[in-house]
Amino acid sequence: MSFAALRSSLRKSVNVRAVQRVGRNNANTFRRYTTETPAPAPKKSNVGLYAGLGAAVVGGIAFYIYSSDSDAAKTAGTALKSGAQSAKVAANYVPTKADYIKVYNKIAEVLDSAGDVDYDDGSYGPVLLRLAWHSSGTYDKETNTGGSNYATMRFEPESLHGANAGLKVARDLMEKVHEEFPWISYGDLWTLAGVAAVQEMGGPKIPWRPGRIDGFAAQATPDGRLPDASQGSDHLRNIFYRMGFNDQEIVALSGAHALGRCHRDRSGFDGPWTFSPITVTNDYFTLLWNEKWVWRKWDGPKQLEDKKTHSLMMLPTDYVLVEDKSFKKWVKAYAEDQDLWFKDFSNAVSRLFELGIPTSQFVSSEPWVLPTIDEQSEEKKQ
Ligand code: HEM
User: Looking at the whole model, is its pTM more than 0.90?
Assistant: First the structure.
């Protein structure tokens, strides 16, 4: 069996379990989405719409400007594109749920394409989730600035902020998807990629809805809004309370480190947190809780390694979760109960991706629960 086939069958078996769990988790919380008013009838074509709005020219110019690399050009392109988006809103244009599922499916294809080029552990899922989180995690509730609404990480200097090192990989992948679906905003695209990453890697459903619009370089956030992994619990609280999260949610969100790895050439840290970095499990918590962690002796930034195998890592900000009394009880709870973590993670991520977006911008009153690729093929068979 080829590696890709093995990966796919592994993913499938994980997904079966995950879907069962998710079914249970979501039965009460999200049932209402399944009975939501049907999505509007599919649009005939974007061309007709743009022509009707007199926006085709705008789209053409925007496309031309987008081909340029400079920030000024991107900003100008964004202005035009936002104009087209506002025009769509003004004309009551709402892309259908089916349109977004097509984008989701394309992203799922991109996730697995990492296997073809031997990228990391065989999935682009982790780096795409990190992109979605870094675009959302700049939110400041006091000033109501930042968040995924304007996708300002497209612009310098935000794209060059130390915390965002390595995310060009993810932005470039999404640029290709955007070429195929130019009507979607970058904020919607990046957060949808985060949703697809979690769901396709066997995690819980992440309720999500579109509505973000592209903004300008001027709306970019200052450096320092994302967490610094070398710090302690005060810093974690400062950063996440600023977004409106509490201690339990800080721990739940940190469980995303079940996925992916640190790269020396990005953050300077090195290695994965778990033995299964492309499958969503509560292993981050079981390992954090059960293993003995010691400071790694090396020439890199301060990080911990597991005493037994020396092959896993924890960041200082991961380790404070078992040192701080208020965080610790949640690490224990999530280590003992994956379903509980799935539920809390799903709620926190869904909220994270919506920080700072005016409710009036959303195209539906409630977030959607999008079907995984496996669920869609099961549905087709029936
Ligand atoms: C709690 C504070 C957090 C800190 C200090 C932190 C820090 C980091 C660092 C240093 C890396 C390594 C980047 C690299 O070298 O490639 C990383 C990776 C990652 N982070 Fe976090 N993070 C935090 C919270 C989160 C949250 C809330 C999420 C998502 C909900 C998340 C998702 C990820 C993922 C998926 C990766 C792996 C990326 C890859 O494999 O390319 N992190 N994080």
Answer: no
Please choose from 120, 123, 131, 133 the residue to mutate so as to test ligand 1's pocket, defined by most ligand atoms within 8 A of CB.
133
Domain endpoint, select from 90, 110, 126: 90
Number of domains the chain contains: 3
63 and 139 both lie in a single domain: no
Q: Mutation test of ligand 1: which of 226, 245, 257 has the most ligand atoms closer than 8 Å to its C-beta? A: 257
Q: Given the structure tokens 């003004």, which residue do they identify? A: 90
Please say if 134 is a catalytic residue: yes
> Ligand 1: distance of its center to the CA of 351 in Å?
17
| Residues of the domain holding 175 | 97-226+351-381
Which atom of ligand 1 sits closest to the CA of residue 197? 35
Give the count of alpha carbons within 13 A of 142, CB side only: 6
Residues 81 and 139 in one domain: no
> Over the stretch 69-119, which tens digit does the pLDDT of each residue have?
444 445 444 555 554 555 454 455 568 999 999 999 999 999 999 999 999
Condensed to tens digits (0 to 9), the pLDDT of residues 335-359 reads 999 999 999 999 999 999 999 999 9
Which residue, by CA, sits nearest to atom 2 of ligand 1? 227
